[in-house]
């Protein structure tokens, strides 16, 4: 039997094949689509689960690091210099808040914000979101305990807010100790690269920016605390999951004396300069710089107007002049030149010359400060009356390289304190130094003016105080410090011959306590005396025309006047305290620096010597 097989038309066959292809492509697309979905899910589950768990936890949990309480800084009599105030603040996570206007409106029943404050906080929060998206932001408004307790009580009804207890640094003598104790501030980008990871992302963290606060940061700062709280979908606190209390920083006992520091700063008044007092073992009792600034302003946040005002001041109130200002030492270097010449066997104390107001070397004239000269002078008289002509000749015979070796023994051209951010090293040149840094040979004329502390020589006030302290203590090396726990034993002897030391000490005594001495008008009468050497440091070269016109220092613009210097010690018969005073553009050492040194040393005797003590 033959079955009937209808013949499929050509158009129908073509359509069937097209449908089959489309079905295949659609099926393949479905497989690919679900394959992609499956692989993506697998990728998220296997490789991204940890990240999304963290994001999920972040929505549910808040981790808030707490600022550690910094250690207290004391003076050597255990009086507080720097301490902490407990403050109450509000912490928020800006990434959680969608509408800042609604947020601040929701806080109105609890916190009294004015319009300007809200505008300020909104600007800061927008900036914070860009750079620190997942970090807490502190609303910098100090709140009383009554407000904080009310917020805490209603915390389940307030979204996105966490009250915190923090600490703000405060200084009992904010102006007087501003330079040497320093201040704290928010870490900048450079600071964040160097601080420990445990201090990252801590709201309201302040770190030491300079002075003792910076130098001893690791000791003082302490260790941060941390709390973890659980929140609901509305950002409201449900419960505290964990809490680790921070560790307070260690207290720091300094060698400073608050009473002396405040007095010295007051004595400087409006002058631009510094006063340093240390005992002859190296314990620094006073280190003040003027003019100063209010360290508390920097701690709590100084406004741009005040900061620019400090920057524009020609007397540089932000500069720690005691450690960072560098000056030609002038005549305060003459004792060291004399010691170097005697120790090297170049001259002895009986070496004499005639001072005729000026002298000439190879056609170049060099002047003495005294118009008609000092006549015949030996070493003692030359130091007492500060004869320049005498020390020109001594320096010529000695040479700068031998002078340089003696200067290094006394600490010139070297740091006095260890790793103190603000301190400058100064310069004490020799023939190799000039060739290396200037590319020129050393000339005799440069040696001659080095003999009176001019030329390339640059010293800091603390270097000069260390130098005179080492003369006062019998010629022993010391290591000055601000840390009361350091070792202050005397080091190696740097003046080998005691006879040489006696000549220098006798010369300094008569320079202050005998008529015609350069600091005679600043002598202290009574049993407790002090002595020392004045110095006048030139900041410009005096031309022959200016000498003929007899232009006085006081008639020049302030920045062209000479610096006024004094270094000394007391009591004379048993030296225990050394002092260095420098007044920027103050004129002669006898006119400004020596009178200030007298007042400060009188205060030293009042503080450390009972009445009636015969030194």
Descriptive overview:
Helices cover 37% and strands 18% of the residues. Strand 2 and strand 3 (80-92) form a beta hairpin. The protein starts with 9 loop residues before the first helix and ends in a 7-residue tail after the last helix. The strands form six sheets. Strands 2, 3, 4, 5 and 10 form a five-stranded mixed β-sheet that branches. Strands 12-11-19-18-17 form a five-stranded antiparallel β-sheet. Helix 15 (388-398) crosses helix 18. The mean pLDDT is 88. It is α+β, with helices and mostly antiparallel strands.
How is this structure best summarized?
Strands 2, 3, 4, 5 and 10 form a five-stranded mixed β-sheet that branches. Strands 12-11-19-18-17 form a five-stranded antiparallel β-sheet.
Total count of helical runs of at least 4 residues = 22
Basic shape = elongated
**N-to-C CA distance:** 150 Å
Secondary-structure-based class equals: alpha+beta
Strand content: 15-25%
Overall number of strands = 19
Low-confidence runs (pLDDT<50, min 5 residues)? none
The level of helicity is 25-40%
How is the biggest beta sheet arranged? Answer: 5 strands, mixed
Taking Cα atoms only, what radius of gyration do you get, to the nearest Å?
Answer: 37 Å
Average pLDDT: 88
